[in-house]
Amino acid sequence: MATVARRREPSLLLGAAGFCSNMSWQVVLPILPLHLAHLGFDVSQVGLVVGLFSLTMGVVELQAGVIAAAVGRRTALLGALAAHAVCLGVAGLGHARWLVAAAFAAAGATRGVLVPPLHATVADSAPAERRGRAFGVFWLCTSLASLAGPALGGFVASHAGDGAPFAVAALFSLAAIPLLAARGVPRRAAGGAPAVDFAAFLGSPSVVRLGVSMLLCYSLAGIWTTFLPLYAARQGISVVTIGWIFAIQGGAYALMQVPTGRLAALEHGRWLTVAGIAVMTGTVLAVPLIHGASLLADGALFGMAFGIMPVTFAMQFTQRVTPDLYTAALSVYNSAIDLGLFAGPLLGAAVAAAASTVAAPFLLALPVGVAAVAIVRRVPSRVAQPWPEQASP
Prior knowledge:
Elements (H helix, E strand, L loop, with lengths): L1 H25 L5 H7 L4 H19 L2 H8 L1 H21 L3 H28 L6 H30 L3 H20 L11 H8 L2 H30 L4 H17 L1 H7 L6 H17 L7 H13 L2 H10 L7 H30 L4 H4 L1 H13 L16
């Protein structure tokens, strides 16, 4: 029994740290547009500030391995959490628009430093045969924050104003620090490969294909989250029902984490990934064809399919590198996510403007989804040796 407890403790501590880290953003997520509007930002400026967060996060994530190499993974994690709390505080208390915009850009950068080494620590916490389960437990905990965070943020804002959730979010960021400190994160530099070697890793055909397929997959998610509320509202669906669509989606996403972690051991989840992308594509394409309560079922299907992605893609990235390079590999993984979440809404907005209808962006799911499936199918399910050995002459 003691042995089982020792095995579970690292996963639980990392899961709790992931929950707090995700809460530090999810609490402010539903309040952010309102807060920016109250400060005088117009609709296009709100979109720019929100997009800037994802863009800076995605760009900095590519350098997360270099940063962890320079200061150590432990320092990178704990320092990023503290800096993220400061940025949230400034964003919530600031009144000058330039200051608030800069704080959000900096908050994205701090999360870019934080997330890859946190995921690398999860990968380090279990041997290869148990890594899928470790990621499943971790993303179960973080996805629960996607349910609790928006509800808490809305409650706090309704009682204390739209600046108050930022203070709560900052406290969650600080709360993750002792959890990671107790976990004993290794101080060694994870991802400290020379720049030329890391460039060779980025240039590997399988890594390029994985990164592009992830970017396309998360572009689908960006289209869904950005344009579904607008489409539903124009169909006369209430805000409460729209909230339930996303709540059901989030619940389905959370429920998929543990079973996906167990199934991902089969071909490292490649065919599971293909199935998930196919279902995501179908649910996004279906949005203009369905109405009312049917969108609730569509949201559940989207959440189940989307819930497959984090574990399976992380498994495919980490199997291609040695443990010392988990941070470098997962920096590519996380950057592809955030650049996809930036590209999807941007492309969808251009199509919506050109077609003069909010239903047009959903049609992008067909070419984007087909391309993602075609690319991920060309990724080898296994590698003979993890990089950098396979990169040697």
